Amino acid sequence: MASHVAGPEIERLVQLLARLPGLGPRSARRAALHLIKKREELLGPLGEAMQIAYQRILTCSVCGNIDTIDPCTICRDARRDPSILLVVETVSDLWALERARLMPARYHVLGGVLSPLDGVGPDDINIAKLLDRIREAQAGERTVREAILAVNATVDGQTTAHYIADLLAPLGVKTTRLAHGVPVGGELDYLDEGTLAAALERRTAF
Amino acid sequence: MASHVAGPEIERLVQLLARLPGLGPRSARRAALHLIKKREELLGPLGEAMQIAYQRILTCSVCGNIDTIDPCTICRDARRDPSILLVVETVSDLWALERARLMPARYHVLGGVLSPLDGVGPDDINIAKLLDRIREAQAGERTVREAILAVNATVDGQTTAHYIADLLAPLGVKTTRLAHGVPVGGELDYLDEGTLAAALERRTAF
After folding, report:
1. Which of A8, B54, B103, B141 has the greatest number of CB atoms lying within 10 Å of its CB?
2. Do A29 and B92 touch (CB under 8 A)?
3. Is any Cβ of chain B less than 8 angstroms from the Cβ of A43?
4. Residue A19 is nearest to which of B7, B42, B69, comparing CB atoms?
C-alpha cells in the first residue's frame, strides 16, 4: 500500500481500517488520510472512544445485548414489560426495533440462527439461556406470557423460529412471529412471489 | 440512534465512525457492532493504532508529506533523485503515484489547489515553500532540474499548475505536466469531448 513511503504506523492504521465492513483498501486509505487531517476533532477522539469501548463493553448476562453495565440498560429498565420477550438474532436487530420505538418489551439476543450448512447448532446460539430465563421467571412471580420470535424472514431464521417455538410450547408460553406482507412504501412490482402470496392470503378488511 | 438502549460509550463510537468518509449512520452502526464483535482482533488494535497515529504523525517540514519522522522517509531516501520534484495536490495523490512505482523522485505536497470561489489563495497552499525549497537547492550544490506539476486535471488544478509554472520560469526550472489522453482500459464511448480532443490532437505514431 503505502508502507514504503509512510511509516509502519500509518500502514497498520490503513490495514485495520480496511477490515471494517463497507471499507475496502481504497476507502480505508481515504479514511486514514481523513482521520490524519482531522487529527484533533476525529483521530484522537475516535481512538479514545475505541479504547474505552474495548475496555468497558460487556455482553449482558441476561439477554445477550451489549452495554457497559451488566445486566444491561434494557434489562434494568423497570418501565419495560418483563412478560413479553422479543427474541432477535443480533444486537443490530435489537437496535433496529428500538429505533422504531414500538414496544417497551425485553429482549433476548440469540447471537445467530441455526444453520446446518454452516455448522451452527442449537448449542451455538443462546437458546438454552432463553429457556432457563423463562423457567426462572415462571419459578418466581414474574412469568413470561409471550415470546415474539422477531427473527429474519430467511430460511435459517424461520427454521430457528420453528425450533424455538417447539421448545417453548411445553412451557405454556404464547409464541408469535412477525407478520409477512408488503413493506410500507413498497411497490408490488419489486416484491417476490412469496411476499405477494403472504400479503394476499392475510389480507385485511378496510 | 441507540443512545437510550446502549451506553453513551457505544453511541459516541457510532457517531464518530459516522464521520469517516464512506460511512453513513447505518454503516457506522454496522461497523461499531463489527468492532465490538471482533473486540480482541480489531477493536483493541484499531483503537491503539489510532492513538499511536494521533501521537506520532507529523507533516514533513520539507515536502508536506505525512510520516512519523521529519524529514519524511521519502525526503531522507538517498536513492531518490533530488533533481526532479513531483508537485502534487494531496498526500493521497502522492500515495497513488508511489503505488504505481513509476519514478524514484521527490515530492512536494501543495495541500490543496488555488480556488478563488472557495477563497483559497496562493498563501493558503504550500507554494512559497516550494519556491524556497528550489532556491535553497540552487544555492547549494543540488539543483532542481524539473518540476512535474502532477495536479488533477480539474479547472482548479490546471489554474494552480499555470500559476506555479509562471513562478518557476524565472528560476530556470523545467516545468512539465501530465499528458492528457484516453485512460488505459478506457472506452471512448464513456469519455468526455475534452479528453477525446486531447487524445486525438496528441496522437502518436505506431
Report:
1. B54
2. yes
3. yes
4. B42
For chain B (length 206 residues), average pLDDT per consecutive 10? 67 94 91 94 95 94 94 92 93 89 90 92 94 91 88 91 94 90 85 85 80
ipTM over 0.90: no
The CA radius of gyration of chain B, in Å to the nearest whole number, is 22
B3 CB near a chain A CB, below 8 Å?
A: no
* pLDDT one-digit tens code per residue, A20-69: 998 988 899 999 999 999 999 999 999 999 999 999 999 999 999 999 99
CB contact under 8 A, B2 and A95: yes
Comparing CB atoms, the residue among A21, A31, A42 nearest residue B30 is A21
Chain B residue numbers with beta carbons less than 8 Å from the beta carbon of A45 are 16
Contact: A6, B67; criterion CB under 8 Å: yes
Spatial distance between the Cα atoms of A98 and B81, rounded to a whole number of angstroms: 60
DSSP per-residue codes, B22-61: T--HHHHHHHHHHHHHTIIIIIHHHHHHHHHHHHH-EE-T
